[in-house]
Amino acid sequence: MTATGTTLVIGATGTTGSRTAAQLLAAGHRVKAASRRATPVPGAEAVRFDWYAPATFDDALAEADRVYLVPPVGDPDPATVMLPFLKQARAGGVRRAVLLSSSAVPAGGPAVGAVHQVLPGLFEEWAVLRPSWFMQNFTGDHAHATTLRENGTVLTATGDGRVGFVDADDIAAVAVHALTDATAPGTDLVLTGPEALSYDDVAAVYADVTGRPVAHQRLTYEGMRDHLTRAAGIPAEFAAMLAAMDQAIAEGSEDRTTDTVERLTGRPPHDLRTVLLREGVGREQPTG
């Protein structure tokens, strides 16, 4: 890849896309910031992009030779809309693609796992980022963050299972490396924070940072599925998949840490307390 290439960042106003765009720009790279409303991003060329509107593909891809791919949120079968775009991107001159997936989804697995499986055959240079659960789930507008602020609770079906929660800033730092390094990783990269935490542990850290009592409310698989559908407005099929991921965590599927962030960025990943303080948790006032 050359320093004069242009990176198309899909989901440039989202959790990892906004951070990836900002870090690329700070490093002097050219960025096309794609979002459904072509929201302005200082220093980048804003462009309208919608996975479900193929008419937006041409303008988004013009002059891009790299792309950061954030799948459509909540779609249980993203390959249906992503694969036509990826084939068009390859034909149009994109040579490197970095896909955001999940530590819970291997190549050939459900949802974005189908895209992961075909990516190496579509692009000369590629990587798949498979981060664990985001620390930002406990900040901003995420459902967990909302219940923590309003009710002092975090609801899961994870039991005592532990997760290697990862900072979205660290995910973006790895994305920038994968997009701009002279040699693409050519593999999938499991990203975690420095330690695996149970949701009881998360509640304790959150309580310590905020000075407010916080509890982990344990639900069954069915209770979590129904909560996601009813309270969070998540489509039933996707809610069932998320609840199943909680159940897998309870069985130990995410109880791990990796050295990927430090190995690729040269610094250790951020811990949960650091992220909560950096993002203003503790200065917020409960709304309930």
From TrEMBL:
InterPro entries assigned to the protein according to its UniProt record, in alphabetical order: Ergot_Alk_Oxidoreductase, NAD(P)-bd_dom, NAD(P)-bd_dom_sf, NmrA-like
Domain NmrA-like: 128-255
Biased composition (Basic and acidic residues): 253-271
Region of interest (Disordered), residue spans: 251-271
Source domain of life: Bacteria
The NAD(P)-binding domain, residue ranges: 11-106
Protein name in the entry: Oxidoreductase
Organism listed in the record: Streptomyces poonensis
